[in-house]
Amino acid sequence: MNSEPSTIILPVENQVRELDAKILLAAMAAERGFPVIMGSRAFLHFFVDRVPRGVYMAKSMRKLSIKMFSILKQLGYEIVAWDEEGLVRWPDQEYWRWRLSPVTMSMVSHLLAWGEDDANWFRNYPGYPGTPIHVTGNPRIDLLRSELREFYGAKALKLKKKYGKFVLINTNFSKVNHFFQHLSELKKAIKESEPGKSETFDAGKGRLKEQLFAEFKKMLPGLAAALPEHNIIVRPHPAENHEPWLKVAAQHRNIQVINEDTVTPWLMAAELLIANGCTTMIEAAVLDTPTIAYQPVADPRYDDDLPNAISRRAFSPEELFDLSEKIMKGQLGPLPLEKRRSVLDRHIAALDGQLAAERIVDVLVDAGYLTKRPEAVPLVTFSRGVLRNRIRTLVKKRNMHKPGHRNNIKYHDHRFPGTSTEEIFSKIRQLGKLLGGRFSNVHVVQLQKHIFKISTTG
Questions:
Q1: CB 149 within 8 A of CB 265
Q2: DSSP string spanning 244-279?
Q3: Is there a contact between 280 and 261 (Cβ–Cβ < 8 Å)?
Q4: What is the H or E stretch that residue 105 is in?
Q5: At 407, phi and psi to the nearest 5?
Q6: Residue 130 φ then ψ, to 5°
């Protein structure tokens, strides 16, 4: 029996959103004895047939992943998965259609859930095959907890010094304002809807998103005038086209469009967050940052309930400006902690106690992955997996040079601009220090462009 530990593969799609949390998870796994390979999801897929088999940590289970999942299985990997978007969900039937596939679900060995609500969502899925579900929480929330919040302390302080008391506007309109416009999925649904016929959910959701997108752009000049002494920072979603926001900002001295670094230090430094239906609103609630859900148009069929329930709400520009002024003057703060926790506790595990990253590593250890790799597949199966992955890699690399393609290298670099061995190592040391002197024996080695090995063996 092979007693080598399983290799843990940690793919990152959106660097500013996922990387730091996965560095924490990688360091904890390496500390326990796992070799971890992490980096850009696209580049990891190119490389994965050259790695000792182990566990692939998937961040989604969409139909788009069927081919890659089947290649991973042919290579001898087991798949452990969670839904990175699982905190802000559409009605079950619609969200299942967007985010899950019975084919991908059948290839997953363990499911990780943000909280009990997320776990129930998995269980209720008609294609759920009975895969073990573990309510672990997500390492992104670990970095918001008091034990680790200071990880971003210096950055938050620097932002406060640079921008003073500022308002953060977080947008999430990529499905109607994508980096490549023809990839705006809900906008496509609107165009395909037939006049006079019952509208699909996607088209209705898309129309609401388009209206909100227009209302947010229209609101910004008024907010700039209402708060003339304060900077207003617009932070677009990682997959969004920035140009519409830059056009508005160009007309106002106190509006800037910035998408630097992860959002957490910005949330810590901001006096106020304004958003609509965004995971960032949940992160702000954990950080005690005052938040306004701006809903100048609303529709109960399409609104995102969780972010709204933990935020103050404004249904008109005038109401938004009034609430914003009161918060900026210190007359109002976030919703009371008890009210926020009464909502959050159903949705997020590991807000207290053991960190989510440690709970996830415990799942991997308890599943036996630390003491052995998954069973080897027959050589012919493995060879087919290698061949399929090499062909897939050639196609993907060719598509990287096609203008407007979803695999285009400019879009990849927009979402994953890159990092360095020194930066990852520094972050691991900083996290270890905050956790009482951990990770001193964890090393980082760059294997290829955008791919790093994190382990105790170097």
A1: no
A2: HHHHHHTT-TTEEE---S-SHHHHHH-SEEEESS-H
A3: no
A4: helix 102-106
A5: -95, 5
A6: 90, 15
Q: How far apart are CA 269 and CA 31, in angstroms?
A: 32
DSSP secondary structure of 324-340:
HHHHHTTS--SSPHHHH
Q: Which residue has the higher pLDDT, 189 or 226?
A: 226
Residue pointed to by tokens 């209720």: 124
Contact 273, 182 (CB under 8 A): no
Which range, of 58-67, 70-79, 192-201, 265-274, averages the lowest pLDDT?
192-201
Nearest Cα neighbor of 174 from 164, 162, 163, 187 is 187
| pTM exceeds cut of 0.85 | yes
Closest CA to 111 of 83, 139, 90: 83
Domains by residue range for the chain, with CATH: 7-143+355-455 (3.40.50), 149-347 (3.40.50.2000)
What gap in Å lies between CA 217 and CA 266, rounded to an integer?
Answer: 21
Q: Sign of torsion, CA 304 307 308 310?
A: positive
pLDDT tens by residue, 55-66:
999 999 999 999
Mean predicted confidence (pLDDT) in 264-292: 96
Amino acid making up residue 414? H
Question: What is residue 323's three-state secondary structure?
Answer: helix
**Residue 174 pLDDT class (50, 70, 90 cuts):** confident
> What pLDDT is attached to residue 196?
52
